[in-house]
Design goal:
With about 200 residues, the chain is of the alpha/beta class. It folds into two domains: about 1-35; about 35-205, TIM Barrel (Alpha-Beta Barrel). Helix content is about 35%, strand content about 15%. It has helices at about 10-35, 75-80, 95, 110-120, 160-180, and strands at about 40-45, 50, 55, 60, 85-90, 125-130, 190-195. Helix 1 (about 10-35) crosses helix 4 (about 110-120). About 25% of the residues are buried.
Length: about 200
C-alpha cells in the first residue's frame, strides 16, 4: 500500500500550484483558440458606449506594452483588473514596429498580438490607439526616424506624403488585428480604435 502524508504547508503549496497551473492552462487555451468573448457589437448613442446591447460606463487603465517585458504583461494586466479596470488602453508604437520602412517588428516587447490576446484572456476589453503620433513621452512621438526623409513630408497636417505613410501603417495594424480575430465582432477584446488622438486644430480669426 502507498501512504501519503502531507503537511498543511505542502497541501497549500500543492493547491496553489494547481491553481496556477489551471490559470496558465486557461490562458494558453484562450490564446490558442483566439476567441475570448462571444462576438458582440459596440456602438454609441451620445450618452454612453453600448456593448452587446447594454450601456456601459467603462474604466480604463493604460499599459504601454513596449515599456515592459512580455513576462511582466500578465501581472500588469491582472493588477489593472484588480484595480477595477474594464479596459486596457495602449498605443501602437510606429517607430518600434517599423524601424526601417517596410520592415516590421512584432516580436519581444513589440509583440502586440500577444499583448492583446493576454488582455482578452483576462476578460478585459482593449482600446487600441494606433496613433500614428504617440503623445506619451515617447521618443520622436512614435514616428520612425526614416519618416522625416520622405520627400515633401510635413508631419501631422493635410500633407499627401504624410497621409500616405500614415495610412499604410494604420492599415497594417488593422489588418493584423483582423487576421488574428481580435475585434469584438470576431470574439476578440478590441472594442475601439483611435486614430490621430490629441490633435489640436486652430484657425486664425
Amino acid at each position: 500500500s502507498l501512504s501519503l502524508s502531507l503537511s498543511v504547508e505542502q497541501m497549500f503549496g500543492a493547491r496553489t500550484s494547481l491553481q496556477c497551473l489551471a490559470v496558465a492552462l486557461t490562458v494558453h487555451l484562450a490564446l490558442v483558440a483566439g476567441e475570448f468573448f462571444k462576438p458582440f457589437n459596440v456602438s454609441y448613442d451620445h450618452r454612453a458606449l453600448i456593448i452587446d446591447g447594454k450601456r456601459r460606463m467603462l474604466i480604463s487603465a493604460g499599459i504601454h506594452y513596449p515599456r515592459a517585458t512580455p513576462e511582466m504583461w500578465p501581472d500588469l494586466i491582472a493588477k489593472s483588473k484588480d484595480g477595477g479596470a474594464d479596459v486596457i488602453e495602449t498605443y501602437a508604437f510606429w517607430n518600434g514596429h517599423e524601424p526601417v520602412r517596410g520592415q516590421y517588428n512584432f516580436e519581444g516587447r513589440y509583440d502586440i498580438v500577444k499583448f492583446v490576446k493576454l488582455v482578452g484572456s483576462s476578460g478585459l476589453y482593449l482600446l487600441l490607439r494606433i496613433g500614428p503620433y504617440v503623445c506619451a513621452e515617447w521618443n520622436f512621438g512614435g514616428f520612425p526616424v526614416w519618416l522625416r526623409d520622405v520627400p515633401g513630408i510635413e508631419f501631422r497636417t493635410d500633407n499627401t506624403p504624410f497621409k500616405e505613410e500614415m495610412q499604410r501603417f494604420v492599415k497594417k495594424i488593422v489588418d493584423l488585428m483582423r487576421e488574428e480575430m481580435l475585434f469584438s465582432w470576431q470574439g476578440g477584446p478590441v472594442i475601439m480604435l483611435q486614430v490621430v488622438g490629441q490633435f489640436l486644430i486652430s484657425v486664425s480669426v
